[in-house]
Amino acid sequence: MSMRIPVEKFRLDNGLLVMLSQDKTAPIVAVNLWYHVGSANERSGRTGFAHLFEHMLFQGSENVTANEHFELVQRAGGTLNGSTWLERTNYFETVPSNQLALALWLESDRMGALLPAMTQKKLDTQRDVVKNERRWSVDNQPYGTCWEKLQELAFPEWHPFHHSLIGSMEDLSEASLEDVAQFFRTYYTPDNAVLSIAGDFEVDEARKLVELYFGPIPRGSGRPPLNKMDLPATFGRSRRVVVEDDVSLCRIYMAFRSPVFGSREYYAASVAGAILGMRRGSRLYRSLVRDRQIAADATAFTFDLAKGADILIIDVTARPDIAAEQLEAEVTREVDLMRKDGVSEAEVDRAVALIQTDIVTVMQTASERADRLSMFATLLGDPDLVNEQADLYAAVAAAEVTAFARDRMGPDNRAILIYVPKERPETINEDDSVEVAAS
Amino acid sequence: MIRPQPSAPREYHFPKFEVRILENGMRIIVASVQKLPVVTVLAVIDATAIADPAGKEGLAELTAQAIREGTTDIDGAQLTLEFEKLGTSFESGADWDSTVASMTVLRDKLAKAFSLFSDVIMAPAFRSDDIERLKAERLSERLQIIDEPRGLAEETFSRFLYAEGARYGEPMSGSSKSVTAITRDDVANFYSENYSAASTTLIFVGDLTLDEGVELGQASFGAWKGARKSIVVKADVPARTSRASRIVSKSDAAQSELRIGHVGVPRVHKDYFSIVVMNAILGGLFSSRINLNLREAHGFTYGASSYYDWRRQAGPFVISTAVQSEVTVAAITEVLNEIDRIRNEQIGEDELSLATSYLGGVFPIRYETTAAIAAALANMVTLKLPESYYDTYRSNIAAVTTLDVLNAAKEYVHPDELQILVVGDPTLLKAPIEALQVGRLTVLDWVEA
User: Which residues of A touch B141 (CB under 8 A)?
Assistant: First the structure.
């Protein structure tokens, strides 16, 4: 099975790398920008700032008023959003193909001239919105602190991946307009971004529009280097944290330091994750959910980090009557089993077959095509890798996965995060509850 | 720099599809979409959660899950592996109006995978052990749902909206109590009564031809039998027709999960398009009134929206948000103001065109994938929409006027009947909500029944 999408690339004089991938199946086009900046680039005392900044990019620019970006794209019949991750921030629109110029113009206006539109009031409002996002997705959510706790466990304090992406309430409160200006000047420059266009367009026309709108934006003065990213291959020991949370079921996360995204060994790690926890035929699901019936759910996946080190994470939620100790022992047993006996060709084949299908189906949408192009260009410097993934996975041998398990899943490389139910006040059944009527 | 103007739009048509009926009454729909070497297969079965027997709510869903636990030839663990070796999974579930089984598979694996797919649907074994395990898994899932403030809000809101005994008041997949009451025989009986050739539509979307789809369907399902069982459902009625409010206790909650609404209208409705546009302006879009007010003007929330839960019978109309606990009452007040405003003032042409051009424009974006096209066709089958439905959708949206929107708001949004539910901290919320005088207030704890 082979599937290749067309990839054409060129670079503007100001450093902006542009990828074009034509597909005229439907009259729609996706525009996707990755800025090579994420929470890893935040200075100390400003956790959460990269994400707060992403919100500010929807607050208007020199020629666009607050929230007009959203309105113009929606009025054009398009969808849009942005997202922030440890290593990057992306912004994207999918619009009817006759509105390509609008999407490019909007992106260029905020890349070229964001600061004239920034005000204290906008910053204050978005700070409140983001604090509510934190309450919604972290503080008021069962197991909601898991990502920030896993990052804390898996990366040393000095490391840029150590701190929380959503940020602390205190740091969010500290963010100032001066921070916005500085962050913008430093990171939101054409030479620190890539632009992908996928879908229905004429190549010459798209090129012309990109040059027209993005060409005049001056190059930046260079992105400051990140703190040292390199890490030893393993943690060197087991780390373990137990958290009491407002939950009914225990849950364990077990993270292993693993090879960076895109490396040869990454694919073995990714396949190891799929063998352990991708879908109902995976080892953990079959053993813990189906056979032993001690788990409600079990998955495993990589974070896909391209700098320093990645992490492979196992995530298993217990059945109601299963204690954390038992859950941990059973998960550990499965991991040890894989280290001891390795994996079979049949297991690799199952995992790779599932991944291959995903690689093809995800390419059905213009927005995903554009996003993958931007991802490979930003993180690995080569957008053509989008067409190599199926082969790279197909080439993974059982021996490589076995070697990964042996070398990277031992007791010297486990970060364990366990959630246990906290004591709750005794509650009463709804049927028996006393209704307190307002007068 | 001058803002760009759009060029001439290129025409778009929803993918062409054709319908065939086999001799046994099974329908086959094929949409040939050749973009990538992939095919999505759906079996849409007239087995609905709304028809679950009282006290055994969740039976339709449990049956949908139980079919994938193995056939008379092969057990569930092995069956799962057989699908996954082909790079796909058999997924199945029931909702209020249908049961859907599905898989998305690469073209060159279709024949093998489809052969398994048809076995699963026609010859499930329903081993008792598997049924008991699925029931236990559902009990775990119940605990996880009500641990989540959002899940808890949605469930308690349905129960609050509908009259005692209404099916819509109970969770679609059943409560702990109702699922516990389901037996292996219930599942087997539900299957034999509801799963049959005449009650099933097969949908193929992707890299195949009509003939290929029909041949596959005929070869595997041609000998399947069974008539269509007619499902008679009485409409669920609201619990009350006056305002009421309820706090579901979640002490020390960092936010209040807020739901405001009432029983809406059935999906197949003469004013459907006017209601859709009205809702888009009220709370359906990012640039809607409610979101711009609560999020962008006040910073109360990460997001606020309104929606109609479209079902064959009247599902809930809901305004949904999570706000910082301290501003709960202010947020409720803003929502009530927005509801009054959309009923009292005709919207401007500008606001109308924002909604209609959005809904019309994103239509092709919604149907880029084989799975999305197949789901749209399933929707057409379930709701018995005309075959021209997707071809005429955009002109129907474009035809809505500002007066239609006003009339839809006046006729279908009922401020006097609004039910207000907050999952949050009662010590902080009780007095101020009482002071709002938005109907009789009840404060409850939740324990799974």
Answer: 296
Is residue B369 a part of any domain in this protein?
Answer: yes
Same domain, B103 and B52: yes
Inter-residue contact B367 to B374 (CB < 8 Å): no
Look at residue B200 and give its three-state secondary structure: strand
User: Cβ separation of B296 and A66 shorter than 8 Å?
Assistant: yes
**Residues B196, B189: Cα–Cα separation, whole Å:** 12
Q: Is the pLDDT of residue A66 over 50?
A: yes
Q: To the nearest whole angstrom, how far is the Cα of B234 from the nearest Cα of chain A? A: 25
Residues B95 and B192 in one domain: yes
The answer to whether A289 contacts B300, with C-beta atoms less than 8 Å apart, is no
Where residue A428 falls (left for φ over 0; alpha for ψ -120 to 50; beta otherwise) is beta
Under the banding of pLDDT at 50, 70 and 90, the label for residue B236 is confident
Is the confidence metric ipTM above 0.85 for this complex?
yes
Q: If you average pLDDT over residues A33-59, what whole number do you get?
A: 97
pLDDT at residue A105 is higher than 70 = yes
Give percent of chain A above pLDDT 90. Answer: 94
Given A25, A71, A98, which is nearest B354 (Cβ)? A71
Q: Under 8 Å CB-to-CB from B30, ≥6 apart: which residues?
A: B17, B18, B20, B203, B204, B205, B208, B209, B210, B212, B213, B214
CATH superfamily of the A8-214 domain: Metalloenzyme, LuxS/M16 peptidase-like (3.30.830.10)
CATH topology of domain A239-421: Cytochrome Bc1 Complex; Chain A, domain 1 (3.30.830)
Nearest of B442, B433, B436, B439 to residue B417 by alpha carbon: B439
| Dihedral sign, Cα of residue B52, residue B56, residue B61, residue B67 | negative
CA A415 to chain CA centroid, nearest Å:
20
